[in-house]
Specification:
Two copies of one chain form a homodimer. The first copy, chain A, is an all-alpha fold. Chain A has helices at residues 4-28, 35-42, 46-51, 56-80, 86-101, 110-118, 124-149, 159-178, 185-197. The interface between A and B is large, with 41 and 41 residues. Chain A binds a DNA duplex (16 and 16 nucleotides) through residues 10, 13, 34-36, 44-48, 50-51, 55-56.
DNA sequence: CCTACCGATCGGTAGG
DNA sequence: CCTACCGATCGGTAGG
């Protein structure tokens, strides 16, 4: 009688499909995740999978949205509890490296992979990837600007330069881990990020 | 009578196929370049294209080899004329940023794209990508070690850390140009690389 | 949510 | 180097 259960089931099915698409996509790229293999993985028919989204592109957008939510949860949220400025930047760096070290997505950072995969294409998926990365650069730049205004970073520092360099290091850590299987990538990244930010200030 | 002309033609055909594969692959990824579309682009049949290489994987390996040769020609060779150590590192940085700025491959750095695309896969192409990047890191690290030994960089600097950071910045420049269409990416990269290397030494 | 199917394209081969 | 073809798989739809 109650539609609750079926509505809940439908949402759970959709979530399971998206989770599988993100996991597979982080390993082999989002475009090469086919509806058919996805259907096998979640134990459904192709029509059942595609019916939830309407098109492969809509499924890709849902996967990207989910991966961004995961990144936000893993990297931004823990750091958002810290005071704005340099302390928060250091908290972001710690959470970011931890996220990379724990292989939250099985094939490494989904957003980095998507950025490489879509940067030569056109359309809504590429636009969403671009917007997601620009937003994150904006977050980093805002915290850097706060740190500069508060005298925690040099007055002549450039917030966008700092955001650029932190993003660069995170990409290289991801590549070192995924392609080079290099356990030294995270400590190297930490060292590089500390060189960008300077030492954390002891409060008081 | 002479086989010269046909042998030359055959080599030229192979070169044309590889060049097209590299160009297309830098834009949309090497795996998504199909034999059929490649055949259309070079005005041949599918069988003619695949016959030159035996398999798609062999074609991919040839494309990767060609892209590495281009990178070497564009970035290493001009710098190799400079004296080893810090001066050569600065020459590499200049050539590297110029290579990125001129979009030598239409979709940006082929090697960076291939590294992202193959880091979650297995097989000979992935191995070749990994080896190519490790070799380049080795070249950078060797120059850094020379600079340290010559007192041009701090005695406690880590050559592999320097190589890691330069590679990170180059990746971020590529992403900034290709995904963000950001003209500021190259100057930002130059500024970051100079921060890693310190100012160039005036000879004498 | 399923089965059954569509036309297109995939990598690759046979045969010349 | 070509035409013609192989079986497999692609994204997506019809109909229930």
């Amino acid at each position: 009688m109650s539609p609750r259960s079926s509505a809940h089931d439908a949402a759970a099915t959709r979530t399971a499909i998206v989770a599988e698409a993100v996991a597979l996509g982080s390993v082999e790229g989002l475009e090469s995740v086919s509806i058919g293999r996805l259907a096998d993985r979640v134990g459904m028919s192709k029509a059942g999978v595609i019916g939830r989204f309407g098109s492969k592109e809509a499924l890709q957008l849902a996967a990207l949205e989910s991966a961004i939510a995961t990144f936000t949860h893993e990297v931004w949220e823990p750091a958002a509890r810290t005071e704005p400025g340099l302390a928060r930047l250091h908290a972001i760096v710690d959470a970011w490296l931890s996220y990379l070290e724990r292989d939250v997505f099985p094939g490494g950072c989904f957003l980095t992979a998507a950025a490489c995969e879509w940067d030569g294409r056109a359309g809504p998926v590429r636009a969403a990837v671009e917007a997601g990365l620009a937003r994150w650069q904006g977050v980093l730049g805002r915290e850097a600007a706060t740190a500069i205004a508060g005298g925690e970073l040099p007055a002549d520092a450039d917030p966008r330069q700092i955001a650029f360099e932190l993003g660069a290091i995170a990409m290289a850590v991801n590549q070192g881990r995924q392609l080079g299987r290099d356990e030294a990538a995270v400590p190297r990244g930490r060292r590089a990020m500390r060189r960008v930010l300077g030492p954390p200030r002891t409060p008081g």
